[in-house]
Amino acid sequence: MFRDGDVVPMDASVVRKVLEPHAPYDVSDDEPVEWVRAADGSDAEVYTGHGVYLDRPGPGVLDIIAELASRTGAAIPLLSEPTAIVTGEEGLRHLSEDLRAGAVVVPPALLTGQAIAQVLRPRPEPRQRPMLPPFPYHPDLMTTGSIVAADETCACCGHDQGWIYTGPVHGEDVPEGRLCPYCIAYGTAAKRHGAFFNEVEARRMPEEAAALIRERTPGFATWQDWGWPAHCGDGAEFLGVVGAKELAPHPDPLDHLRLRCAEWGWESGATEEFLAALNKDGQPTAYLFRCRACGTRLAEADFT
Ligand SMILES: [Zn+2]
Ligand SMILES: [Zn+2]
After folding, report:
1. I want to staple 162 with a disulfide (CB 3.0 to 4.6 A). Which of 96, 129, 255, 260 is the partner?
2. pLDDT at position 123, please?
């Protein structure tokens, strides 16, 4: 304990009153408490001199230290920055000069073991985010960027779920603000607000698959309305936005695009020029898909 910058003895009777209930053995009246065990099973050896030193305190022992400091007004010197915890301005004044500048004040009512732990380790733990719901038609949301980690309230459910959808939301009655992936996956946004996320042409795939892609699958920014491709009687899964460079190793989707251009009545020269100009970050651009049944890769082109 500090008094005018010097270390002075603590009130031994208060120290004893705090420590004795935590001693896991019978303490005789003429002996100081030499060992404490906290409620969580962590323990520490106690050395009593001018101050009380608890050697290698576990999380539960920090609570005992907090109680000691709250009841005696003693400072808790730390071996790092911040240099000490005191329970008030007066405690700060009595600290030795070398400790004073780097000390923090935590009032007795707030001084707990957890508070001490937070002062010792002020950086917040990285947030644990819940598992994303499965999206069978848009499986790799981290790569496509349609869902990102965010501390943001969902405009549909009103909760901060740790993730937010960055893509387009269509519909006449959609709320302002972004949506969480759970409100998309569970169909809440579709049911409540008539929201939909992708254009799907009827007749290309079973109605059940079309509804899942339209109303419960995260979309991505596109240039124009276009149709989600199908293969083997099911909607394909979206892999990402690609350009000529990304498509080069995939002859199948390139042939698929040539077929499309032929449908539009394009000459082969114009088609090859168009395919070479495909750009991941601009337009014309292409979307890469894979058949969920046979694995065939497909591409759709998009431009204004
Ligand atoms: Zn939500
Ligand atoms: Zn297929």
Report:
1. 129
2. 65
